[in-house]
Amino acid sequence: MSNLSSRLSALFLTLVLFGVVACSAEHASVAVPKAATDAALATAKSQQTAVLSGGCFWGVQAVFQHVKGVISATSGYSGGAANTAEYELVSNGDTGHAESVQITYDPSQITYGELLRVFFSVAHDPTELNHQGPDSGTQYRSSIFYANDEQKRIAESYIAQLDQAKIFSNKIVTQVVPLKAFYPAEAYHQDYYRLHPNNPYIVFNDAPKVANLRQEFPNLYTGK
Hints:
Layout: H1 4-18, E1 48-54, H2 57-65, E2 70-78, H3 87-90, E3 98-105, H4 112-123, E4 131-132, E5 135-136, E6 142-146, H5 149-164, E7 175-178, E8 182-184, H6 192-195, H7 200-216
Helix pairs in contact: 2-4, 2-7, 4-7
């Protein structure tokens, strides 16, 4: 998306030509299982972070804002330099950044593996290369930015588990790469789902994700 109007134009064209399709992992042949390799729930409350990218950050942020154990979810940019972490520059697709979401969570309430299960199940389509819904470009790539060796181990093991079980009709293309930095996006991108529920992009692409979260993970869903 070079700007909001081009995003909405792309959405309109998609709706006209192909009908309304929400970008979630509905193509999974069976329910996405839990990660076989995961950290145990912590015995005391604390805060940890996970950084994920899977298309437009509006929808990914919205999903994780409704997950039990998540303290906050912030839209932003990861993968590029600090001086290019701006919406208009990232939208050109040549900064190395991906639209990402930093998730701060309580590991005594939810594990990293469970966050990834939500990520693969309802937050985006992990088999789409540089593409989600009406959005195309490397800034919309599927990536897990790991902060430590444990996150890397869990992410790589989980992808191998899902691919081996052929949970999806196509191979997962999600990158697992080290987190160098996370840069929060501009204020007008934060809480976009909550603040603009009637925006056509939100209605057709992101609201179904939150609805799928509620349906598929009732024990994890929170209406906050």
